Amino acid sequence: MKNTGEAASENGGLESQPRDRKRKRKNTRPALLTSEIPTVTIALPGSIIDNAQSHELATRLAGQIARAATIFRIDEVVVFDNKSTSEDSSISVTEDNSNEDESGTAFLMRILRYLETPQYLRRSLFPKHKSLRFVGLLPPLDAPHHLRKHEWASYREGITVEKAAQGVAGMLVDVGLSKNVTINEVLEPGMRVTVEMGADRALNTGPRKLASRSKPMEEGIYWGYSVRYAPNLSSVLRNCPYEGGYDHTIGTSEHGSVINSSELSLPTFRHLLIAFGGLAGLEECVEEDIYLKGRTVNDVFNSYLNTCPHQGSRTIRTEEAIFISLQYFQEPISRVSKRYQRLN
Q1: Which of 135, 179, 208, 317 could connect to 4 by a Cys-Cys bridge, CB 3.0–4.6 Å?
Q2: Is 344 exposed, middle or buried (0-12, 13-18, 19+ CB in 10 A)?
C-alpha cells in the first residue's frame, strides 16, 4: 500500500514534557513497562504533515490519526523522523512554547497529545500555542477517560495541584469534578496522574490512591494512547519502552504480501508494532535510515503486508492507510487477545 500524507509544518508535541503557565505542568504518560495485557503500537513518519496545503488541513490530518488510534484502541503512537541521524529519542518539542512554526513531527505530536488529554486538563497542560489554533474544528475522541463533570467512574485522569491542608497527608488533585480530591502521595505540582476514584462519591473523603495507566486497561477499559518520538525508523524498534521490546512487527506497503484478514494468523504477541510509511512508502523510510543500510523492509519487520490490494487510486494516504489497516488487523488481533485470555 502506498502511503501518502499531507500537512503543513507547524508544531507538535513529543515525549513527556513540562508545560508552562505559572508553574511547570507535566503532561506525562508513563510507559507501559509492566502491562499484563497485549499492546498494539502504530508508527508513522512526521513528514506526512509537511505535505498539507494549510495549517487547517494539517490539523485535520492529525485529528484523523488520533481518531483512528482511539477507535481501534491503540496503546502507543510513535512518530518518527524520516531523515534524522540522531540517536537522541528524548527530544521534547512541546516544551517549546514559542509561536514559531514547528516541524511536521513536532506539530503532529502536539496535536496527538492534546486530543488524547481529557478536556478539563487541557488548559493546565497546554499553554496557548499557534499549532493548536484549529483544534476546535476537530471532532472529540470521546474516549472513556474523557469524562464529563457529572460522570462518575472508577478512575479519572487528574493534575496535581498543591499539598493538602496542614495536618492532612497527601496532595490535592484536580480530576475535573466540583472539588479537588486528595491522594496519598506528594508529587510535584502540575503532573498528570490517574486516580482510583472507587465507589465513594464524597469528594472530601480520602485520601485516594494513584493507579498506573495500565490498571484501567487491565480491567478492559481503554485509557488512551501514549505518544513517543523516534529520531528514525530503527529507533522505533530500538527504543521500545516495553520490557523485551516488540515481539512481533509488521510493515505495511502496496508491495507487501497479500493475505486475507480472515486467513492472517498472528503469533501470541505481547507487544505488536504496525509501521506505516509516508509519501514514498515504508521502503523509503528504510532506505534513508543510516542504521538500516543494506536492509530491506522484509529484513526489518517480521511481516510485510499489503492490507488494501486492488486499490482504485494510485496512492493511499497515510491517514487512510491507518484506518484501512487497523480494520484489516482487528480480527487477527482479536483472535490473539482471546488466545491470551485462555492462556491466563
Answers
A1: 317
A2: exposed
Q: Are 275 and 233 contacting, i.e. CB atoms less than 8 angstroms apart?
A: yes
Instruction: Note the pTM of the prediction, 2 decimals.
Output: 0.86
Alpha-carbon distance of 262 to 332, in angstroms, equals 7
Instruction: Spell 187-211 as b/e; 16+ CB within 10 A means b.
Output: eebbbbbbbebeeeeeeeebbbebb
Distance separating alpha carbons of residues 121 and 157, to the nearest angstrom: 8
**Are the C-beta atoms of residues 119 and 111 closer than 8 Å to each other?**
no
User: Which alpha helices (H) appear in 27-117, and where do they start and end?
Assistant: 55-71, 104-116
**pLDDT tens-digit series, residues 213-261:** 889 998 999 999 999 999 999 999 999 999 999 999 999 999 999 999 9
d(CA 5, CA 13): 18
Helix (H) or strand (E) holding 42: strand 39-45
